[in-house]
Amino acid sequence: MDGSSANxxxxxxxxxxxxxxxxxxxxxxxxxxxxxxxxxxxxCAPQLRAxxxxxxxxxxxxxxxxxxxxxxxxxxxxFAVLPDRGERTLPMFWPERALRALxxxxxxxxxxxxxxxxxxxxxxxxxxxxxxxxxxxxxxGRYRSARGFELYLEAASLAASRAFFIGDxxxxxxxxxxxxxxxxxxxxxxxxxxxxxxxxxxxxDEEESGDRxxxxxxxxxxxxxPSIDPYDAPVTGALEIHARGATxxxxxxxxxxxxxxxxxxxxxxxxxxxxxxxxxxxxxxKLVERxxxxxxxxxAAEAVGLDLDEEGYFEVAPDGGVEDALLALLARARRREGExxxxxxxxxxxxxxxxxxxxxxxxAYGGDARLDRGAQAERTTDHxxxxxxxAAGGRAPAGGGATGAEAAETLRAAEMAVLxxx
Length: 422
Known about the structure:
By secondary structure, this protein is mostly helical. The protein contains 18 helices and nine strands.
């Protein structure tokens, strides 16, 4: 089986127990860090070092370069089981019509910002950087074409959806085998250990490296590099995968990417959980200013010690609980002239002000949370979700998450439910 588009539409990957597994069992004994694809282990490491590129940007470029080498890459066999056009379930690949289903969600603005930052990073550091400084390694003809940027997006999608933190020196990397385990929040059955090569995987949970992290654009500055230059550090150490609970033979084994809301899961990994207990919603400062007036909001914020420019937004918790800082701001804004104390957070005037903020936030979603018919039709194409939601005769993708149009609907419904509970 390979990662071609045709097979990507027919298969998905998962890890199942062949025998009963006890808590603490070593499931994978060793994944050497030299086998993990990072900026340090990539064959283009000398060029990345010369350009002082680090972080997620360097990883994106390393993946892009190694994929371009075909059979000459040390990771050719690994790439053969990955989607050959990147993780097409990620919203970064969705067409405009499908993106409209994200209107009002926490994710919509991030997708738009990513499109800009990815393009800027690519133009500055690949087209105008590496292609100029090292044309023998980074072919200008390839990377200055429209297809060149598409190759970068595909690499960035693989990094976003699959990269693991493997230590302070090497940062994030693609880790063969470890990325085959699907995610389940608060119910993982395995965990990856060994992020710090000098420490035993048994010593502390602080050494866990099981959380994948999104680095779709990354920080290109040398300031992002650790005090030990990763390009100088020897590639030593290994990762292990341990059982975090008993698993019966035949059951699927799950890792966890951490406690994330559905907006984060869809953004980084291309799916949502239908019953995610960690859904949160942000209330932008600008909404508060619209609801109670910009001058009133600024004056009240200053009085209660808030910097609205730094604050950015206030969070609504999964149970509908509103951040205390916002309630304090609204209470101060609604204090009547001549009174010495602010009204309580449960007072009618504060609740009314909060209701105005929530109403404006809900209006951002527009009408029906479902896609229009045209977008629903596109759901069955490779543009929206790589056909994953229709894979294997309509079965749910591995791990049971919602992808594509269903994920957008799930996300909107979850966020609106949180706001309704506030």
